[in-house]
Amino acid sequence: MTQTTLRQHLTAQSTETDLMILMEDIATACRMIADRVRHGAFAGVLGAAETENVQGETQKELDVISDEIFQEIVGVNPNVAALVSEEVDEVNWRKAAPQAGDFVVYYDPLDGSSNLDVNLSVGTIFSIVKLDEAISPEAQAVQIKGTEQIAAGYAIYGPSTGLVITTGQGVDGFTHHPGSGEFLLTQPEMTIPAETQEFAINASRYDLWETPVRSYIDDCLRGADGPRGKKFNMRWCASMVADVHRILTRGGVFLYPKDTGNAAQGGKLRLMYEANPMGMLVEQAGGASSTGYGRIMEVAPTGHHQRVSVILGSRDEVAVIEGYHKD
Ligand SMILES: O=P(O)(O)OC[C@H]1O[C@](O)(COP(=O)(O)O)[C@@H](O)[C@@H]1O
Ligand SMILES: [Mg+2]
Ligand SMILES: [Mg+2]
């Protein structure tokens, strides 16, 4: 084999052994989730609620199946103190007596799952932090700022299965090679161009947006004759993994702002297992991630399922959007 495997890549980056094994466990879980996703309706229930099939057996949503796979593979890693999943209300402690140096893994086992029924790209997002002396291994211990992440990434289940990771040394993309089962390095050193003419937002929420976001999108839509002086393209996958993957590949900005429809919850997207890991990846690729008012990774968490406003992507465009929030 001539291409670099995930292990060879992590070894070349001098990744500590425990983290390398954890990343490989996550890659294994993602391979297994990819297999279930690829089996479509044969794998269980797609986006619908848990139901009984014709034999009277309980069929599970793919979200739940993916979470169980993650728990079975990543949850038995001896250095994982706790898992925090979108699908599980409480912190899933894996060790009775967590120690400094143990890992906490935050994850969204299946992101964009409303896309399953229509057979579009979905993914798995993960974020890794380490417990240290300063952080007591109790319930609050899992509310750790995004700046403390030591690694983050996502798998994308699209026409091919990809794995995009960072350990704080840039961002690298791998493609699953079905013959060998390996993730092979196919997009080394992914970088996001500083400027863009492409935005991603769910425009059906226009009437709910706050003034800064509405003014920004209005100005983009006015094209070459408007205040931005250029024509913008728009994309919206309704799957954050797919939207961020496009941005890491060719630039752009992604917005899921807090609006009057979701303000009571603090926004739509989750800080610990959506916004922080994507924020780390985007920043490591030379982009920026913001709430509109400050860096996402510096938001002090108040709960492990906390929601937050998300604006991320091409650095100069994120700065422009922050400017609208200052005006
Ligand atoms: O349906 P909307 O409002 O467009 O929201 C789409 C957003 O919701 C999400 O699907 C939330 O993720 P889950 O599928 O994990 O709940 C994001 O991936 C996506 O950006
Ligand atoms: Mg999600
Ligand atoms: Mg999800």
TrEMBL record:
Keyword S-adenosyl-L-methionine annotated: no
Catalytic activity line of the entry: beta-D-fructose 1,6-bisphosphate + H2O = beta-D-fructose 6-phosphate + phosphate
Pfam families attached to this UniProt entry: FBPase, FBPase_C
Protein family (similarity comment): Belongs to the FBPase class 1 family.
Matching PANTHER family: FRUCTOSE-1,6-BISPHOSPHATASE-RELATED (PTHR11556), SEDOHEPTULOSE-1,7-BISPHOSPHATASE, CHLOROPLASTIC (PTHR11556:SF35)
The protein's assembly and partners: Homotetramer.
Record-given protein name: Fructose-1,6-bisphosphatase class 1
Organism: Sulfitobacter donghicola DSW-25 = KCTC 12864 = JCM 14565
